Amino acid sequence: MITIYSDDHRAHHAAREMQGGVAVPAVEKPARLDSILARIGEVGLGPVRPPDGLGLDPVRRVHTAPYLAFLEQGHTLWSEQFGDIDAAPFSWPARGLRGIEPKSIEGRLGYYAGDVSTPITGGTWRAATAAADVAATGACLIADGARSAFALCRPPGHHASADVFNGYCYLNNAAIAAQVLCDRGAGRVAVLDIDYHHGNGTQDIFYRRGDVLFVSLHADPAVEYPFFLGHADEVGEGAGAGATLNLPMPLGTGYAVYGPALDRGLDAIDRFAPDAMVVSFGADTYDGDPISAFRLTGDDFSRLGQRIGRIARPVLVVMEGGYAVDALGRNTVNFLAALEGAQT
Ligand code: Q9C
Ligand code: ZN
Q1: What residues have CB less than 8 Å from 20, skipping those under 6 apart?
Q2: What is the pLDDT of residues 245-262, one digit of tens each?
Q3: Catalytic residue among 12, 159, 197, 198
Q4: What is the Å distance from ligand 1's center to 307 Cα?
Q5: Which of 63, 255, 266, 333 could disulfide-link 39, Cβ–Cβ 3.0 to 4.6 Å?
Q6: Burial of 320 (C-beta count, 10 Å sphere; 0-12/13-18/19+)
Q7: Active site includes 159?
């Protein structure tokens, strides 16, 4: 399987994130991709190539212009006031307040942010746009006839909506890829999100559309991030009614529960009969993940890949979460190799 990768991800390396009321070293860090790249080389998964430099056009198809302007300038404006440290919000337009964009950078951070754990650093824009380019390039390879491709990118994307950054995500790489597939002629695209966390951004972006099916397996939002979306009764609206499927599962879920849920999701995708598929892949469902509570093993990732590969559609895999860095390369490449093996 071909991997698309840009070294520009290193520009985004947040010093800290908030967990349990204290600032701790950020778990979404450059070493994650080093682990995956090393394993790709070890097992000879296939070639690794840079993105095409597609620019911002694919990004503008998914995100609003004011949001992109904010993301691009945000850290510079913040630094003029607070110095060269990572920017984070502390005030939100919660219930009872007016949701209009303030003028000050502190206010704008709260306006566009969904949480306090997604800092905007001096290199965030560069890394996030490179990640979007990686995903968009992967989508072009699929549109040109590849059976599978792997967009190895960070920062991740599936929590980001058209105009909200949160959950370590700024630009929604998987949504950008799905939109590229639509724009390149796919009549129907399925997004299968198997990150541990619900893909709230992707769901929101496609919620009212019938041409993009969104299927997500994740920890129950009643007890896990992102908390405010991802329940089973969210099924899409308008033209998108029936084109969202959420399969929330309890903390502690292992393969005995996860496998049958995946089969339900794949059945729905089969019925939808998409021209192509985007998999938002997170390895944070792993037993040893430091911020998650599912119990998948290294071998289970091979089983997931095998089941998804058997669906016999062109598949772009887009990297999302996964924070157990030492096992991340093995788990991810287990998944990719099994997926490709089941396709042929
Ligand atoms: N108690 C992705 O996997 N909250 N994002 C962490 C831990 C944010 C995860 C707090 C988790 C976001 C792409
Ligand atoms: Zn996640």
Answers
A1: none
A2: 999 999 999 999 999 999
A3: 159
A4: 26
A5: 333
A6: buried
A7: yes
Which atom of ligand 1 is nearest to 157's Cα? Answer: 13
Q: Which ligand sits nearest to residue 154's alpha carbon?
A: 1
Residue that the structure tokens 């929604």 belong to? 172
Number of H-type helices and E-type strands within the chain? 10, 10
C-alpha 187 to ligand 2 mean position (Å): 29
Identity at 302, one-letter amino acid code? S
Give the list of residues 6+ apart from residue 228 with CB closer than 8 angstroms, or none. 200, 221
Q: Whole-angstrom Cα distance, residue 69 to residue 176? A: 17
Nearest CA to ligand 1 atom 8: 167
Closest ligand to residue 197's CA:
2
User: Candidates 22, 168, 227, 292: which one to mutate for ligand 1, based on the most atoms within 8 Å of Cβ?
Assistant: 168
Strands 22-25 and 16-19: antiparallel
User: pLDDT tens-digit profile of 77-106?
Assistant: 999 999 999 999 999 999 999 999 999 999
